[in-house]
Amino acid sequence: MSGGVDSSVAAFLMSEKYKNDCVGATMLLFLNETLNIPAYNKYPCCSRENIIDAKKICDTLGIKHEILNFMADFEEHVIKNFIDTYENGGTPNPCIACNKFLKFGLMLEHSEKLGLGNVATGHYAKIERDNSGRYLLRKAKDLHRDQSYVLYMLTQKILSRVEFPLGDMTKPEVRELAASLNFSNSQKHDSQDICFIPDGNYASFIENYTGKKYPEGNFVDPNGKILGTHKGIIHYTAGQRRGLGVSAATRLYVSEIDAVNNKIILVPEDDSNLYFKYITVEKANLIALDKIENYLKARVKIRYHQNEIPAKIFQTGESSFLIEFDTPQIAPAKGQSAVIYDDDYVIGGGIISQAKN
Description:
Blueprint: H1 5-18, E1 23-28, H2 39-42, H3 48-61, E2 64-69, H4 71-87, H5 94-113, E3 119-120, E4 125-129, E5 135-139, H6 156-159, E6 162-163, H7 171-180, H8 202-210, E7 217-220, E8 226-230, E9 252-258, E10 263-268, E11 275-286, E12 296-301, E13 309-317, E14 320-330, E15 337-342, E16 345-356
Parallel strand pairs: 1-2, 3-6, 7-10
Antiparallel strand pairs: 4-5, 5-16, 7-8, 9-10, 11-14, 11-16, 12-13, 12-15, 13-14, 15-16
Helix pairs in contact: 1-3, 1-7, 4-5
């Protein structure tokens, strides 16, 4: 329970279903108050205010509330991975790492210690079972809030012990129910961007956290011609076109980030070097089937706020794929996730490790 309206309504629905067999748990992950960034006071993650809000809801529902200190685990699995990915020219999605290792990793372990069966969260997604008994992950009713993209790593074992009570609700319906229950957080703002970087300035966070200053380098074209000076590779992501600060006759995009040589390759929108037909995917997980035989025709989402793209998926190893898009895509970012869909159902997904023309 984060202290927000979604997890609060989820707690109400679970307490109605299971009565007294519920415990509300808030994960203490990161103390934003430790960084001197004004925006952190406006949108605090794991703040005292949010913890108090979660406790109030539990008191209202008559269920126990616990605070679980996962700060060391969050630093190891989420923050360090976030920084390492940026330092190596990638673009991470920390919510996916958090879901895998903490919300559906450590939290499930803790529920076992309490002698409880399942973990429920306020995610907007659905879990179903097919005729064979296999668990399936499906998009939420509210497609504007659907979070299935960040849940593709859930295994059959985890899906058997997870509940998403908001899957058949829309956000307005959730707020309306919270208001009818007189929840104090019924109109509370939604969390913004990455929870531990509420001002959205990733580079500033990384520099503050590591105490390092990342060196400037060259913007170059595919032939190595210098086009300008960049501020440090952690400030950029593949496919970026805004905020480059380079004067050119045509709009330029980041085609590739060369972390080894501290160079960023820029190309115009119509340059073939900007478009990639293939990506390799590592640390993959399949939900809807055990293995991809030959190949699978499906749709793939390579960024959270992007439509799915028709593609062929080839399984190249136990946890690796090669994905061939029907049409080349603008600079898929290393470190982001490629999630495979069949209509509303998540087939699986993994982390993009390389893009190829």
